[in-house]
Structure formats: C-alpha cells, structure tokens
Specification:
The longest helix is centred in the first third of the chain and has 30 residues. A hairpin with a 5-residue loop joins strand 2 and strand 3. The protein contains 18 helices and 3 strands. The chain is mainly alpha-helical and about 425 residues long. The chain has a domain of about 110 residues. Helix 8 crosses helix 10, helix 11 packs parallel to helix 14 and helix 15 runs antiparallel to helix 16.
Amino acid sequence: MLKTSLDLPGLVPEALSLLEPGDTLVRVLAWVALGSVVWALLTLERAQQESGSFREALGSESSTFGPLYLRPALTLLALVSLALVPTFPYGFTLPVALTQDLGLAQDVAAVAALVALRVPAFRLPAPASGSVFFLAFLAYSFLAPGWARLWDAHPGNQPKTLRMAVSLSHGLSLDAEGVSAPMEELTPRPFLPAAADAASTLARESALLARASMGGVETIGAGAIRASRITRQTIRGKNGGVYYVLPPGPSVLLAPALRLDRALNLARGTPGRLDVTLLLWNALAAALVAAVFALARDASGRPGLAALVAAGFGLAPPFVFYSYQFYPEMLGALVLALVFRWLFFVPRWTPAGWFLLGGLLATLPWLHQKFLPVWGVLVLTAVILAVHRLVTFRALLALLLPQLATLYLLALYNFAITGSTRPDAMYLA
C-alpha cells in the first residue's frame, strides 16, 4: 500500500483501524509522564539556583519547550495530507517520510533547539564557500548508502547514464550497444584510433547536415527521423547502434571516473564498485550546496543565515538523495545557482568572465532537454544585462559564441543519431 498509486476509497479509516488504541494510549501517557518528570526536576533545580518560587521557574521554563511540538505538528500535517490526497506523491510516501524516515531528524532538531535555548549565546565566524563545500562533501560522502557504490544497485535511468559513460570512456562513442557486460570485462579501444573514428564521424555527419539543410526544412524536421524505438528511452540509430534519449552531459562527466574505477576494481578484484565515481558525484553535490550558500549570502548580505539555509537544503530532499543518485537535476541546479549569482551579484566582468558564464550556460541543454526553455530565457537575460552594462563587443562575443556552438552541436547530435535536427528528435523516435 505504501507504493500504491491507486486512489483507494476509505484508506484512511482502514489504516487508522489497524492501530491498537490501548497500547497507543499507554505509550503516549508514558511519554508525557517521563517528560513531566524531567520538566519538574529541571524547574525545581532552576528555582533553587535562582532562590525564586517554583511557580515562577515553571512559567519561565515552560516557554522554552516549544520545539517539542515539532513531532506532533508534523504528524498532524502527515495525517491531513493522507486524508486529503492519499496518493500524493507516489502513494503516501510523503507522510511516511515525514513521520518515519525523517523521525530521527525531528528528534535531533528538537534536542538541538532545546539545548540552544539553555546554553549561553555564542557566535561563530561566518563561513566561506570553501568551508561549506568541504563540510557538505564530508556529509555526503558519509551519508551515501553502501548500495550507491555498486553498479547493479542503481535504479531508474541511472544505468543508462552509466552505460553511456562506459561507452565514452572505453571508445569515445555514444553507441552503448557494446556495453552488455560489466565494464571490467570490456576491453577499451586505444585512444588514437577511437579519436580518429570520432573525428571522422563528426566530419561526415557535419557534411551530411549541411547538405540536408540546403534541401529545406522538411528534410531535417520530424519527418526526417529514421531512428526507431527499441524499448523505454532506448532507440536504434539511423545507421544502427543503441542510443539513449538522455543527453550525454552527465555521462561525459562520469566517464573519466568510471575508467579510474575500472582500473581500481581490476587491481583489487572488486568488480562493480563505483568508489571514485560516487566521490566525484558527492563533490559536485557539495559544490551545489556551496553555490546555494554563495547565492543566498550575496542576495541577503547575511553569511550566517545563508549558511543555515544552505545546510537546511543540503540535508533535506531532494538534495540529499541526488548527492548519490546520478540524475541530471543536481547538475542543472548547480549551473543555475552559479549563473544566477554571476548575473545579478557580480558587478564587473572581464571578457574571460563572460566567456566562463557563456560556457556554463551552454552546458544546460547537454544535461537534459527539459533545460532548453530556461537556457533560452537565461541567454536572453545575459544578453540584455551585457548591453545594459555596456560591455565590449569582445565580451559579448565571449558570451554568445558558446551558445552558437551548443546550437550547432545539439543539432548535429540529434541529426547524427536520428536524421533530424529537432531538439526532441530522440524522444519522437
């Protein structure tokens, strides 16, 4: 039932009927009694120390127990969510996550708040982005579950991303048809022949694209798609081969790390391990936390508040899950956080800075097709800001040239695999 997506009538009353009222009442009363004893002891001790009355100490002490309402408040929210929409989201995993999976986090937060209300106030120096990155990297490295270090344990689209990365690291090819065995059993191609084949393919498809473009729009539109579907998000290319509809950006990042993991696994006799790959992904996720911190710090002018916000997001879903799951959303968020900060909170830019900004923007379409609209909006925003700041023509070119290169290479990528330059050609196939 926890994984159901069906709207089952009478689900909430049926679930509540499974509780044993007597046992539940005893547990609640025991919890309240224990809390009352501790409360009374603390209050008596405080009254003796201050030589005041028990009633005065009780009234003063009771105002600091607000954090204990966190658990019942979240429980009530979970019950309301379950009652209103039992299937949101993914069955009723949200209430379960709030009250069960994150139960320890609630206790830690409540205890931390109780301690903070009783200890003398103290101040810590405002952290820098490097410190935030280091702490987030340590946290993500230790929080990653053991199964995340194993090739076979990753569900969803992650195996497609990993297989594409293996194909790139072994032969500089996006064709994953040959990745049908563990990467330790595959023989990498020598670099120079693989690079020569990749360059030959690039030149040949560029010439074919130029010839097709001269024939009119219909030759490169949806009707020009010659690829065919194999299975979910997997297609047969126009010239054969197996390709995934996922853009290759994440796989390009992971390819060198997977090659290192392959060498380590062969040396240690531990096939299927992703130690280096996971650490690289942890580092990218930590960079996202540091980028959020820098963005919030520059937007608010309060480094302490920015550190708290970044830590809160970093240890909550979806950040904490995407720190060990190979999905492109985390990379997209990292690029967006960096771009937003540089666009709106960095007053002066050199031509090199504009080129770096242009390069960052140009990576968005290669992470996932869903980032195409926001990429267009951000490029337009960057151009408007560049003109408003009266940048040099050289700086404007440094911003626009990477976007033109991405437009061309994106069209070539889709054309080489499907026969059409449409951005959604892979999905249509």
